[in-house]
Amino acid sequence: MEMRPLGRTGISVSLLGLGTVKFGRNAGMKYPRDFDLPDDGAVIALLEEARALGVNLLDTAPAYGVSEQRLGALLPGRREDWVIVSKAGEWFEGGQSRFDFAPDAIEASVHESLRRLRTDYLDAVLLHSDGEDEAGDRFLPAAERLERLKRQGKLRATGFSGKTVAGGLHMLDHTDLLMVSYNPGHRDEAPVIAAAARAGRGVLVKKALASGHAADPAAALAEIAGLPGVSGIVVGTLSRENLRANAAAVMPQGGR
């Protein structure tokens, strides 16, 4: 698996990352089919498969139900073998999302993530946007609190998981990395990826397979892997076969 720098953070991530929302939440999702949460054995087998493929990047969040708790309890290998990216600002409770970007709420969220994941540091924490990105200044106090937590050693990098071009561009100067949506049916945020590359920021891509609706997953992943500035592509799955296929799709042509 190709490893890429996460901007200037000093962190190297696998080009393919594993999204873990399906480890902990199956309500309020946009996937084409319903699914049951996997048992512990299935989670461990998938994580072991990821490790065997060279995947070190794991994406989770407090809004992903019990994903963080399960990773904390079941993650194989050494902590330093993995790059764990979590988020702050969104919680999923009672069937709906709740958002709070007050600095104290962000700090409390980080400490809860550390507890659930059974670790003393997170590799990155991203502000989990509510979509009102154009009013970008409203996120700055939260971003400053994340920066303070980074100085305290609680996290290695700060980030912003946005939903608009304006939001991503606005937060570019206030975080170490951005998470953007990109797939063949949604290329709107390409300018954010390009701007981040020029600024030396890391870029993680979400929605690469359009939440399971991509017509040609391999082609979608190959396209994104070829974009200058992309550090990692986060794709969620519960299937070891799909994980292997996704890993093959991001390999250089000569390695297939």
Short description:
The chain is an alpha/beta fold. The protein has nine helices and twelve strands. The strands form three sheets. The chain has an eight-stranded parallel β-barrel, surrounded by five helices. A two-stranded antiparallel ribbon has the order 1-2.
pLDDT averaged residue by residue: 92
Strand content: 15-25%
Q: What's the CATH architecture name?
A: Alpha-Beta Barrel
Structural class: alpha/beta
The CATH topology is what?
TIM Barrel
> What is the terminal separation in angstroms?
11 Å
The 3D shape can be described as globular
Give the full name of the CATH homologous superfamily.
NADP-dependent oxidoreductase domain
Q: How many domains is the backbone divided into?
A: 1
**Cα Rg:** 17 Å
CATH class equals: Alpha Beta
Major sheet: 8 strands, parallel, barrel
Number of strands: 12
Low-confidence stretches: none
With helices defined by DSSP (H or I, 4 residues minimum), what is the helix count? 9
